[in-house]
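Budget justification note: compute hours in this period were largely spent on complex prediction jobs such as the one shown. Inputs:
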Amino acid sequence: MADVFKALADPTRRTILDELTDRNGQTLFEICARLSMKHNLNSSRQAISQHLDVLESAQLVQTRREGRYKYHYINTKPLEPVIERWLRPAEPEEPSDPATAREEEP
Amino acid sequence: MADVFKALADPTRRTILDELTDRNGQTLFEICARLSMKHNLNSSRQAISQHLDVLESAQLVQTRREGRYKYHYINTKPLEPVIERWLRPAEPEEPSDPATAREEEP
DNA sequence: ACGATATGCAAGCGATTGCTTGCGTGTCAA
DNA sequence: TTGACACGCAAGCAATCGCTTGCATATCGT
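Corresponding output:
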């Protein structure tokens, strides 16, 4: 689970996920080209490849080999527990504005 | 928005959010003590203070001053757009298993 | 077989991160 | 006022990160 947050910490990796959301199943070169075109990100092939390795280690990207091509698919499953961890249990608590909240002294 | 992911990338900061979820509105020393007790995290006061600064910059923690005490409150609002970014738009797409999916050649 | 294509592996480098150390500031009780 | 308490600021350091560079492997078309 820690890998998921570390993977999402980099803006280039988040843009890669955006790209795979827009068009799933791209190859490495395809991702490089579209990152340069649509997102003005001129990172090298090796840089993107390493980013994809990080995303794959975090299970956020799954891959499928076919000959010399390697297709990359986004996988949003690791994101679901991220939400449940803090979003759900904290919702029915006290008001979100600290100026109006009150607690006993420590 | 980048600050949110960077803030969540550290395991100690995630544990701090867990602690604030369990008991909202704690002071710095209170957080230090409970991290040591319940989570076996023996970080120094300054280390935790810097972590809280990061969380506050990311708007994940709001603070309220009262005399020499500073109370910390979790704020889950920055987490909501995180979900919508990839979870929602990618759901009605093709099968998540890359072995069965298919795309045209690049 | 040969070259072109698509990707993998690994060492090295500057920048950033998380933490420590030491001192400073403001607040409260006696 | 004095001392204890809660917290802030900033320099320094080892570890990690993102990226480059260079070479290697594997697959396809001709």
